[in-house]
Amino acid sequence: MSIENLDFKMNTDLSIDEKLPSGFKSQYFDALYNLETLHWWFRARNKLIIWAFKKFSPDFKTFMEIGCGTGYVLSAIANAFPKAEIHGSELFEEGLHFAALRIENANLIQLNATNMKFVEEFDVVGAFDVIEHINEDELVLAGMFDALKPGGYMMLTVPQHPFLWSSADKYWCHVRRYTSTEIHAKVFRAGFDIVKSTSFVSLLLPIMLIQRLKNKNRQDFNGFEELLIHPFLNNVLEYLMAFERSLIRLGLVFSLGGSRLIVAKKPSIK
After folding, report:
1. Residue 270 pLDDT grade (very low, low, confident, very high; cuts 50, 70, 90)
2. Is residue 270 part of a domain?
3. Domain range for residue 104?
4. Dihedral in degrees, nearest 10, Cα atoms 168, 169, 170, 171
5. What total of structural domains would you count in the chain?
6. E strands along the chain, which residues?
7. What backbone phi and psi angles, to 5 degrees, belong to 54?
8. Res 92: pLDDT
9. Separation CA 25–CA 220 (nearest Å)
10. Does residue 254 sit within a domain?
11. Residues with Cβ < 8 Å from 149, sequence gap 6 or more?
12. Do 171 and 159 contact (CB within 8 A), yes or no?
């Protein structure tokens, strides 16, 4: 299947004059499309997300991912829940092209996450390492709340701990790294009840801290070079993440970690 022949629905209401989210570089999608399937972090995050779906909303029928990028997470959800109706949105057309390569039966739309128009349409809405790129993150959370049916779930992952801020965050166009207090407050203000919140990439935090301090002010930092690691080390790190995930499944909540997973629920109508 060639990219030129892909057919997906585009949001023609998107204007280049709108105040766009703070950023991502669309040229990154090409390299990410190939790296995500191999790298321990992307693979481990996918498995944690799928666990959260099976734990908190196993019978969902409709799902929308905000900022689906190349469709790596979206395709994992589609494979794990083949009967569900899968939707993905992305600001950049380049990302949607790659997402369409990964997933044949998803409804993909171009969308500015700060200006969503959905009202009570989905059982689950997710944003996985997306809102840290956006200045108006609370607009996105409010839009996700509106998009959910009463009793629906939001799945969210974000990078954590401002003390980890480094050239890597600048390279990947982050606006912020969250504290748990900040992200919890924003989720509550959007109207959600938090049902699960835990750090992850916790067992590897000392290694991550050393790496981030090393690259704190590097002007020549290249994020893709950091993602290219030896297969043996990649496997070791993935096994450590699997052990960490088993602890989370058992109910352990990590307070510290490079990232945070939040599962939140929209209150049901009484």
Report:
1. low
2. no
3. 3-265
4. 50
5. 1
6. 62-66, 85-90, 107-110, 122-128, 148-159, 193-200, 259-265
7. -65, -30
8. 93
9. 17
10. yes
11. 120, 121, 122, 123, 266
12. no
Q: Cα(25)–Cα(27) distance, rounded to whole angstroms? A: 5
Amino acid 3: pLDDT: 31
Structural domain includes residue 111: yes
pLDDT for the residue 23: 67
Nearest-angstrom CA–CA distance, 51 and 130: 20
Report percent pLDDT > 90 for the chain: 82
Global pTM?
0.90
> CA–CA separation, 61 vs 190, rounded Å?
23
Q: Is 164 inside any structural domain?
A: yes
Contact 110, 90 (CB under 8 A): yes
* Pairing status of strand 62-66 against strand 85-90: parallel
- Bridge partners of 264, per DSSP, are 154, 194
State phi, psi for 212 to the nearest 5 degrees.
-70, -40
Closest CA to 48 of 245, 258, 257: 245
Kindly report the CATH number assigned to the domain that includes residue 235. 3.40.50.150
